[in-house]
Design goal:
Blueprint: H1 3-17, H2 25-28, E1 48-49, E2 52-61, H3 72-77, H4 84-90, H5 92-102, E3 107-112, E4 117-121, H6 123-130, H7 139-148, E5 153-157, H8 167-176, E6 181-185, H9 189-198, E7 202-205, H10 225-237, E8 242-246, H11 250-258, E9 263-267, H12 269-272, H13 279-295, E10 299-303, E11 320-325, H14 327-336, H15 338-348
Helix pairs in contact: 1-5, 4-5, 7-8, 14-15
């Protein structure tokens, strides 16, 4: 059963049974609770504050903690994208709560911070296969195992030189991936054309150098502004959200905003490779980049060089929604298996794993 339906039913039953509750001192003084005005029922916009999600379904009388409703585990499983305005309009329980709010009851609001997502890059599974130009290990089978471990999405990079992921892999991944497929590509015209035809859920535009071992630094959006201005609208016309993989510099982020992309993925390679004495400086660059991106209206992801040893340093970046991690997970999976490696990373990210 849908956990949201379970929660709605239980809260509805509890609210209908409740007796009149006295106003608390703050309400008597005409104050607000959780940033929501006391006058009238909050709108959908009122219920969303920064990175916190406030839903009317989670309003309960102050003398009745949610634990007494037996719904703690359902609350944790509610999807972070649940639309508060839709719930307010449609749920019978929300209508009951609206009437109670208008009668100026005393309420407790539960604020849920969005869950930090993990997308796993599977390129280096294909790197191992391509070492012998064989058929194993199969990146598609590996992607299924990654999803089985609890990852929120799969990332792959189709390069011009085809050093790991191949065109046939991309076709098979699109058929197999049940979470979200994030495709990284360069601005090469052939790569843009293949990405447009791929059916990927998201596109991340990255720099590419044939001599590099792995991606070296973020995309120079300033230098590539002309080609980006041609490519980005083509993806948007196909309904493909676009992210730019950039260094956390304000001038790069301003170009990303001007190009009307949805996301930026902040390049964390400099942090991952920094000496101990330079770590805090690199983290501050990332924090500043995340704040700047958010102020510009961009959503914030991050990735490159992150591992089990250093990932905790980036968990407090403001407005961060998603991490892209690959090589470290592939490396650990050699010893403990794919699903265990993914769950270990989720735990390092502070996620609850069964």
């Amino acid at each position: 059963m849908d956990p949201g339906a379970v929660l709605r039913g239980r809260i509805e039953d509890r609210v209908e049974q409740e007796h009149e509750a006295p106003h608390d001192q703050q309400e008597a003084q005409g104050g607000s609770l959780g940033g929501v005005p006391r006058t009238g029922f909050p709108s959908g916009d009122d219920l969303r504050r920064g990175s916190l999600f406030l839903a009317p379904l989670f309003l309960a009388a102050s003398h009745a903690p949610l634990s007494s409703l037996g719904v703690d585990h359902e609350v944790r499983r509610i999807h972070q994208g649940f639309d508060a305005g839709h719930v307010t309009r449609r749920a019978h329980s929300a209508r009951i709560l609206a009437e109670r709010w208008k009668r100026r009851k005393s309420f407790r609001i539960l604020a849920l911070a969005p869950v930090l997502k993990l997308h796993v890059n599977i390129d280096h599974v294909a790197t191992l296969r391509q070492a012998r130009r064989g058929i194993e290990p199969d990146p598609v089978a590996w992607a299924r195992a990654v999803e089985g471990g609890g990852a929120d999405g799969i990332t792959c990079h189709l390069r011009k030189d085809r050093r790991h992921i191949q065109d046939t892999d991309l076709v098979a991944l699109r058929k197999a991936v049940t979470t979200l497929l994030n495709l990284e590509v360069s601005l090469d015209e052939e790569m843009v054309g293949l990405a447009l035809a791929s059916g990927a859920d998201e596109i991340c535009i990255v720099p590419e150098n044939r001599q590099e071992i792995t991606t070296e630094g973020g995309l120079d959006a300033i230098a590539e502004r002309g080609r980006l201005a041609e490519a980005v609208p083509r993806f948007r016309e196909r309904g493909m959200p676009v992210s730019l993989f950039v260094d956390p510099e304000p001038d790069q982020l301003e170009v990303a905003r001007a190009l009307n992309v949805e996301f930026v993925e902040l390049h964390t390679g400099s942090y991952a490779n920094a000496s101990e004495g330079a770590l805090e400086e690199e983290l501050e660059r990332l924090r500043g980049g995340a704040r700047c991106a958010h102020e510009l209206g961009l959503r914030v992801n991050a990735g490159h060089g992150l591992s089990y040893d250093n990932v905790q340093g980036v968990l407090d970046l403001p407005h961060l929604e998603e991490l892209n991690i690959g090589h470290s997970i592939v490396s650990r999976a050699v010893f403990c298996g794919v699903e265990t490696a993914v769950r270990d990373m989720l735990r390092r990210m502070g996620r609850t794993v069964a």
